[in-house]
Write a structure and sequence with these properties.
It holds the Pfam family Acetyltransf_16. The chain has 223 residues and is α+β, with helices and mostly antiparallel strands. It has helices at 10-20, 25-29, 47-59, 64-88, 166-177, 194-204, and strands at 41-45, 113-119, 122-131, 134-137, 144-147, 150-157, 188-190, 216-217. It has a single domain, classed as Aminopeptidase (3-Layer(aba) Sandwich). Strands 1-2-3-6-7-8 form a 6-stranded mixed beta sheet, sandwiched between helices. The N and C termini lie far apart (49 Å). 30% of the residues are buried.
Length: 223
Amino acid sequence: MLLLFYFIPFSLFFSYLFLGMNASPEVLANTPLPRYNVKDGITVWTAEDCDELEKRCKANPSDKAAKDFKDFLFSTINILGAKSKRAQGIGAVLTSVSKLHEKFSSSEPVPQKLYILFYQNQGMGILKTGVKKLFISHPKTNTLVEVEPLAVLDFFVDDTYQRKGFGKQLFVKVLEEEGLMAHPERLAIDRPSEKFLQFLAKHYHLTQYTPQVNHFVVVLEFF
């Protein structure tokens, strides 16, 4: 079931997994992504899903397959989150197993969702969403308005697989899941990179937005 890292001994593989929950972002960003016999495609994970997997492993300690998958999944999430931080040049990790458990407020109606793209037995990309209460400047009236859009909180595809359509697959999956295929403009985006803005312009012709103090981008068509 469990395949090893290229050129990494079995014992060292598991030391990476155990280290992964507490290692620094710099260490994780340079850690090879683990491999596992998982189907190609995109799966969606929440904090509750991770907790259920953890409970299953604790309730059935002899279930090696469940434990191996949990170790693979949690390590993949933490490593891709650290790689995303490094690629974006930001000060803090946006995605990790622990970050999925954080809430913006006690009344947050929708949990954060993490979309993970698996390809050739590895996690290759992530896109995290959550509902965010924002005060933004209306482009027409220049007044602050309160909105609660679904927001893209993190978006990353491993360097090896960029510009191969994987980012588009992740984004489309989010639109499908949230019923926004016809309305990508309804998404807010937290601190989008220049690559992300180019992506929106190329695939969805979304180019106009008003810079916000909170660094979220809400395109003109949102209004």
